[in-house]
């Protein structure tokens, strides 16, 4: 396999792994301790904030988690 194709396959695998880990974390979110939720949330905001356009990422992510959290869905 040529090096560029090999590198692309690794990147595809990495993207898949990060994706499924993210889905798993979101699925378990309401079961995680609040301090761990806060650490993950702040890391996600820091990693996702790349440009000025991302200024609302914190609010959008908070709304997403609220809208998909088992504890808040029951309200």
Describe this structure in words.
By secondary structure, this protein is mainly alpha-helical. It has one domain. The chain is 76% helix and 0% strand. The chain has four helices and no strands. α2 packs across α3. The longest helix is centred in the first third of the chain and has 26 residues. The chain starts with a helix and ends with a helix. The model has no long low-confidence stretch (mean pLDDT 82).
Order of helices and strands: HHHH
Quickly count the helices: 4
DSSP helix fraction:
over 70%
The averaged pLDDT comes out at: 82
Please state roughly what percent of the residues sit in beta strands, choosing from under 5%, 5-15%, 15-25%, 25-35%, 35-45% or over 45%. under 5%
Low-confidence stretches: none
Q: Which structural class is indicated by helix and strand composition?
A: mainly alpha
Radius of gyration based on Cα positions? 16 Å
Overall strand count: 0
| Total domain count | 1
N- and C-termini, Cα separation? 53 Å
Oligomer: single chain
Sheet with most strands: none
Give the overall form: globular
Secondary structure layout:
Elements: H1 3-28, H2 34-48, H3 57-68, H4 70-73
């Amino acid at each position: 396999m040529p090096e560029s194709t090999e590198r692309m396959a690794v990147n595809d695998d990495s993207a898949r792994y990060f994706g499924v880990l993210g889905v798993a974390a979101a699925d378990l979110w309401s079961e995680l301790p609040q301090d761990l939720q806060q650490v993950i949330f702040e890391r996600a905001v820091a990693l996702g904030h790349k440009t000025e356009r991302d200024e609302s990422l914190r609010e959008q992510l908070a709304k997403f988690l609220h809208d998909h959290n088992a504890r808040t869905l029951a309200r």
